[in-house]
Specification:
binds S-adenosyl-L-homocysteine, 9 helices, alpha/beta, single chain, five-stranded parallel beta sheet, elongated
């Protein structure tokens, strides 16, 4: 994927840069035992087609790269990236191991089990039975992993889509899932979790995690915008600006240095996974981003956090630029014009997020914004598409 971004020494800010130190999400310490691995970039992109291809007889070593294209979660690489994301995986482990009382003698449904890691945590924490549902070929590996670790009597791996499988029990006490995509909602696996919740969760059952929030902030990003967007204006002397238009529309998933942040962060939307409907994942949210210094704004940046509020101690993690990096990085939405903003001035507007009608795994984003400043007066609407 993209190389790391610039350091603050390269920033062209109008004020002195703050010292670069990554702060941690205040909820829970996520790296007690595992060393700081896998915080760097990976070139593995999550693919939007999550489940197995039509020809499910294609297995393991016989697969071609085309098969993997249609079935990215069947390859171990994407699971390696997720497992090595210690912020992610350790948070789930802490939630489960430090709240055994939630799991003792309970029936758990793991929605999209992958390698089965969350099911194994739950089984170890004393769950009565865990149903691990996974639609990709990785289900076969999960089955072997469960057996190799002596949990065959506690964990049942079911290979298939949540929407299509027959669960051997009428109800479950807990639904656990790691469903979050880039920009929280890309891939739209949230609908699968809500489907499982409505079909099988007992009335006082719990969903883990049970809260997810999306945030927006604004950054200075001159150098990277030049490299990713303006690049197309002159490619070896040729005008390729038709591609610039496309690149502007595609949000960029990349890490942002916290020193690039120019404004406050605005909470756009909180979703209560225990109560929401799938329609709640489409919304329009207002924002007001107030400049904390004189600077240029090249892009707005979205990120999310999730939390597990039913725990003894509030637990969760953030994917924001001030927190330790995760494989979700941040989502950068470049603005058509460079905004020059003075401290105290603000960019106000709204963000509309909807599922794409043709491909519900894609996310359409409409950004409306206005700045009435001393140096810049602007009012614009821009469209983006995560795909
Ligand atoms: N729980 C694992 C994997 C998370 S990735 C972990 O935490 O490491 C999400 C997984 O959900 C992928 O393996 C994907 O194949 C699976 N998945 C996505 N949609 C699904 C569906 N509708 N039914 C079953 N599995 C699904």
């Amino acid at each position: 994927m993209d190389p790391g971004r610039k350091t603050d020494a390269q920033n062209s800010t109008m004020t002195d840069a703050m010292p670069a130190s990554k702060t941690r999400f205040e909820f829970e310490d996520a790296d007690e035992t595992i060393e700081e691995a896998a915080t760097g970039s990976s070139n593995l992109e999550e693919d939007s087609a999550m489940c197995e291809p039509e020809d499910s007889s294609i297995v393991g070593a016989d697969k071609t790269s085309a098969d993997y294209y249609f079935d990215s979660y069947s390859h171990f690489g994407i699971h390696e990236e997720m497992l090595k994301d210690v912020v992610r995986t350790k948070t789930y482990q802490n939630v489960i191991y430090k709240n055994k009382f939630l799991f003792k003698d309970k029936i758990v449904l793991d929605v999209g089990a992958g390698t089965g890691i969350l099911s194994l945590f739950c089984a170890k924490a004393g769950a009565k039975h865990v149903y691990a549902v996974e639609c990709s070929q990785m289900a076969d590996m999960a089955q072997e992993i469960v057996k190799a670790n002596g949990f065959s009597s506690v964990i049942t791996v079911l290979k298939g889509k949540i929407e299509e499988i027959n669960l051997p029990v009428p109800q479950v006490d807990i639904i656990i899932s790691e469903w979050m995509g880039y920009f929280l909602l890309y891939e739209n696996m949230l609908n699968t979790v809500l489907y499982a919740r409505d079909k099988w969760l007992v009335s006082n059952g719990i969903v883990l995690p049970d809260n997810a929030s999306l945030y927006l902030t604004a950054i200075e990003d001159a150098e990277y915008k030049e490299d990713k967007i303006e690049f197309w204006n002159n490619v070896y002397g040729f005008d390729m600006s038709c591609i610039r238009k496309q690149s502007m529309m595609e949000p960029l998933v990349d890490t942002v240095d916290q020193n690039q942040i120019v404004t406050n962060s605005q909470l756009l939307k909180t979703m209560n996974i225990s109560k929401m409907t799938s329609g709640d994942a489409s919304f329009t949210a207002p924002f007001k981003l107030i400049a904390q210094r004189d600077d240029y704004i090249h892009a707005l940046v979205a990120y999310f956090d999730v939390s597990f509020s039913v725990c003894h101690k509030m637990t969760g993690f953030s994917t924001g630029p001030k927190s330790r990096n995760t494989h979700w990085k941040q989502t950068v939405l470049y603005l058509e014009d460079v905004l020059t903003i003075c401290q105290g001035e603000f960019v106000a507007g709204s963000m509309t997020v909807t599922q794409n009608k043709k491909n519900p795994r894609d996310v359409d984003i409409t950004l409306k914004y206005t700045l009435n400043g001393r140096r810049t007066t602007i009012s614009r609407t821009q469209q983006y598409k995560m795909r």
